[in-house]
Amino acid sequence: MSNEFNDEHMLTRVLGMIALQAMELREKIMMGEELPSWAEYKVYSASDSIKGALSSTYRIEDDFSQNMPMRIAMHKMAGEKDAPNYRPAEDDNETCETCAYRDESGLCHAFNFKCKANWVCDAWED
């Protein structure tokens, strides 16, 4: 069977393209690009689809799936260090805008992304 019609070849090629597209989109978002709500929905849907496919590769006895939530495990595997519990701020005195890690341009130096001024994470510092 030709490589171009081999399931393994086709799947790894498509997954490689998805990874590159995801990295490009992530970079744009980190640089302040805002997605319309329909595009955010597509990203969340794609994530759910990938997680569903990935879950088919794990067995109950796999230590990975038993001891660690999927979201955390995926971040660890990707080597990512996201802002913990990043969310809209409830206290105007504790926001990304007042955090010691954020510079004038809006870049969070603790987690290397452009954060929203009125949001906060659990790593907030005075």
Summarize the structure.
With 126 residues, the protein is mainly alpha-helical. It is 45% helix and 6% strand.
Descriptive report:
With 126 residues, the protein is mainly α. It has a domain at 83-126. The chain is 45% helix and 6% strand. It has helices spanning 7-30, 37-55, 63-67, 70-78, and strands spanning 87-88, 107-108, 113-114, 119-120. Strands 1-4 form a two-stranded antiparallel ribbon. The N and C termini lie far apart (62 Å). The relative contact order is 0.10.
List keywords for this structure.
126 residues, mainly alpha, two-stranded antiparallel sheet, 4 helices, 6% strand
Major sheet details: 2 strands, antiparallel
Strand content: 5-15%
Q: Could you tell me the radius of gyration in angstroms?
A: 18 Å
Total beta-strand segments? 4
Please report the distance between the alpha carbons of the first and last residues. 62 Å
Class by SSE composition: mainly alpha
The count of helical stretches stands at 4
Order of helices and strands: HHHHEEEE
| Mean pLDDT level | 80
Q: Which spans have pLDDT < 50 for at least 5 consecutive residues?
A: 60-69
**Could you give the order of strands across the largest sheet?**
1-4
Overall geometry comes to: elongated
Portion of residues in helices?
A: 40-55%
Strand and helix layout:
Layout: H1 7-30, H2 37-55, H3 63-67, H4 70-78, E1 87-88, E2 107-108, E3 113-114, E4 119-120
Antiparallel strand pairs: 1-4, 2-3
